[in-house]
Amino acid sequence: MEAIRKERDELKAEMDQINAQLERVSALYREASAEKAKMEQKVDVSDLLAIYITLIENIFGGKPHARILYTLHDTKAAISRKNLESSTGIMPAAIIKAVHDLRNADLVSYDEDTQEVKLTKEIL
């Protein structure tokens, strides 16, 4: 009986700790929601878009990804990796990484044998 009580007390303590963490997450969410409402009043959408583009290009290295997606949207057909390299002017290693990232995000398909990349999800 003592062992069961001890286990119950441990589980209750763990549950209290989880509830406290959930309460902190809820508080952060409420704070972020309030901040979002303030931001919507102060920030023009085009300014926010410019910030996102800058972050994607400079911080997250998304420029190769964007160029590949634009190229695939223009052609609407499979393109070889070599043709992507030559048409975008991006280094081969960056093309390979971007293609794999886009494939992992289910935006493109990549055939390892033929090295052809094809758009699988229309964005534009």
Features:
124 residues; elongated; 5 helices; single chain; mainly alpha; 8% strand; three-stranded antiparallel beta sheet
Secondary-structure blueprint of this entry?
Elements: H1 2-42, H2 45-59, H3 63-75, E1 79-80, H4 81-88, H5 92-104, E2 108-111, E3 116-119
Antiparallel strand pairs: 1-3, 2-3
Termini, distance in Å? 65 Å
* Residue runs with pLDDT of under 50 for 5 or more positions: none
Q: Classify the helix fraction into a percent range.
A: over 70%
**Shape assignment:** elongated
- Would you tell me the structural class of the helices and strands? mainly alpha
Task: Please identify the oligomeric state.
Answer: single chain
Main beta sheet? 3 strands, antiparallel
User: What's the arrangement of strands in the largest beta sheet?
Assistant: 1-3-2
Explain how this protein is built.
- The structure is a single chain.
- This protein is 73% helix and 8% strand.
- The mean pLDDT is 82.
- The chain has a three-stranded antiparallel beta sheet.
- It contains five helices and three strands, in the order αααβααββ.
- The protein has 124 residues and is mainly α.
- Strand 2 and strand 3 (116-119) form a beta hairpin.
- It has helices spanning 2-42, 45-59, 63-75, 81-88, 92-104, and strands at 79-80, 108-111, 116-119.
